[in-house]
Amino acid sequence: MSVRGRILNAKGDLSEAEAKVADYILKHQQQVLKMTIKQLAKASNSSPASVIRLTKRLDIDSFTTLRILLSSDLTKNHSDPKDNADITKNEQLSSIKEKLLSSALQSIRETTDQVNEDEVDHLVSAIIHSQRLFIFGIGASYLAVENISQKWNRIGYPTVADNDLNALLPKVINAGKNDVLWIISNSGESPEVLLAAQTAKEKGVKVASLTRFGNNSLAKLSDISVHTSQPMESPNRIAATNSLLAQFMLIDIIFYFFVSKSFDKSAKALDASHRVVRDYKQSLLK
Amino acid sequence: MSVRGRILNAKGDLSEAEAKVADYILKHQQQVLKMTIKQLAKASNSSPASVIRLTKRLDIDSFTTLRILLSSDLTKNHSDPKDNADITKNEQLSSIKEKLLSSALQSIRETTDQVNEDEVDHLVSAIIHSQRLFIFGIGASYLAVENISQKWNRIGYPTVADNDLNALLPKVINAGKNDVLWIISNSGESPEVLLAAQTAKEKGVKVASLTRFGNNSLAKLSDISVHTSQPMESPNRIAATNSLLAQFMLIDIIFYFFVSKSFDKSAKALDASHRVVRDYKQSLLK
DNA sequence: CTAAAATTGAATTTTTATTTCAAAGGTAAA
DNA sequence: TTTACCTTTGAAATAAAAATTCAATTTTAG
């Protein structure tokens, strides 16, 4: 995993001094490459000991190794300077393409990079052992809800998808321990989704969430939480777009992991689904 | 210049001991990354002093820098050989991630690459000048329909989104020359979408389509057609997934081109939409 | 309010990088 | 052949950097 991914993943567990170092690294990756521990400690207002503690916490064996990883990351992600540029008036199509492509690639790469394997594992197990799977999300996140719903339906795990709290709550009230409610929310702060989560918890329904990275109320409330990468500082307009792609990427990863884990049942079902849809279309043509 | 390049360039000027170190580095780049000077000296049958003399001769300021350059070189030249592998039983999450990532990046890159600028231009003009925009798609493509609908709604162009022919046809029957029907279909061959296209054409409604690349009936029927890249020969299971990401990427490109072209109206509306949703959430919290 | 645990950076120790330097070997002119 | 003068080399010394220890301090839990 990349240094950036490691840092974002560990963010919650870092002490204050460690977090200062981590922030400095995120913001000055290029410079850190050429720094010694002492310099980095000074630049980030901490101490050499904290720098070392951070590297250990990131599961990197030495500061030297950290620099090597960082160098590799920077080469890999070497993204054009087009970064972070917002869309402007009367722009050329080619310029828009470049901007969107570079930020899309970055989002997708980073999201994949920082997938938390344990959480995905929990989520997949929870779904496999659940009786029913409820999925909830509003606004743009409802697209992710639909996507999840369609995918799991295709492998023989019927789901209940909602984007209306009034429709969801009665179902949740009557749900129980063997059910899972998976909530999608980019910010993790919409009152609607928080209410849904709270209600589910009170009924003993297992709550999973998919949010963007970083502290948010929904993730805190959830039993299981997975994350998309937080776009660096990409402008408002593009950010919304990237979060969708990132959500879809993450869903794909989770879905295919699920398929792989329940292969005998799921893969067969998936192939059968493709076949039945094709046959249906054939019959319509006659 | 890469470390390898530097060494080959300097080859003639190296002393015997320096050459031994240089050879060792060329043959064991990966290991050298993790070695100290002393270890490298021993492994190459020379001395620490010779190692340093070599780095200076290569015009590299320190051994630490040499390692950083080497790390970058290795990353740059490491190409991903994970093409076309399907998901199998009980696979590691990391392996699934790699497969999905590499095929996702490819789809998105290719789709962006082969955007037909003229067609996008036509489509954008048609929408700008239209009275009403109908969007239609079934199955997984309905996610793209919803995505388009939400995006244009946000900039003050209300849309009519459907995934049910029974709901769509009555609307199309009563539509006219100034309306646009945009149909999303990966294959471009579903009977439902072909029927929708035919009906619209008969009523003089302009038909746009978004399909995968290559000959397909829907594209032929359409007045305007845009394409996602045709996945090379990626296996069935992953292909479905990639086509969604590619559709979304293409939609983003078209959308932001649209925003850029109608900037004064759209950008303002977009920002206002973000604001009004935020305010609404604030009010719910009180 | 107190005891235990966690956090922190100064100081120290350990390790690594770099420089120095004397020995060894080579070369060319006398 | 001798001698003076390069060049190369690695052992040893030095300098620098990395990693650890530990006591002081803050935070947390009871």
Describe the secondary-structure layout:
2 copies of one chain form a homodimer.
Chain A: H1 3-10, H2 16-27, H3 29-32, H4 37-43, H5 48-57, H6 63-77, H7 93-113, H8 117-129, E1 132-136, H9 141-154, E2 159-162, H10 165-173, E3 179-184, H11 191-202, E4 206-212, H12 217-221, E5 224-228, H13 236-261, H14 263-285
Parallel strand pairs in A: 1-2, 1-3, 3-4, 4-5
The structure holds a DNA duplex (30 and 30 nucleotides).
In CATH, what is the class of the largest domain in chain A? Answer: Alpha Beta
- Low-pLDDT stretches of chain A: none
Oligomeric form: homodimer
Series of secondary-structure elements of chain A, N-terminal to C-terminal: HHHHHHHHEHEHEHEHEHH
Helix count of chain A equals 14
How would you characterize the overall build of this protein?
The structure is a homodimer of 286-residue chains. With 286 residues, chain A is an alpha/beta fold. Chain A has 2 domains: 1-80, Orthogonal Bundle (Arc Repressor Mutant, subunit A), CATH 1.10.10.10; 117-273, Rossmann fold. Chain A is built from 14 helices and 5 strands. The first copy, chain A, has helices at residues 3-10, 16-27, 29-32, 37-43, 48-57, 63-77, 93-113, 117-129, 141-154, 165-173, 191-202, 217-221, 236-261, 263-285; strands spanning 132-136, 159-162, 179-184, 206-212, 224-228. A 5-stranded parallel sheet of chain A has the order 2-1-3-4-5, sandwiched between helices. In chain A, helix 12 (217-221) links the parallel strand 4 (206-212) and strand 5. In chain A, helix 10 (165-173) runs parallel beside helix 11. The longest helix of chain A is centred in the C-terminal third of the chain and has 26 residues, at 236-261. The first copy, chain A, is globular, with a radius of gyration of 22 Å. The model of chain A has no long low-confidence stretch (mean pLDDT 86). At the A-B interface, helix 6, helix 7, helix 8, helix 9 and helix 13 of A face helix 6, helix 7, helix 8, helix 9 and helix 13 of B.
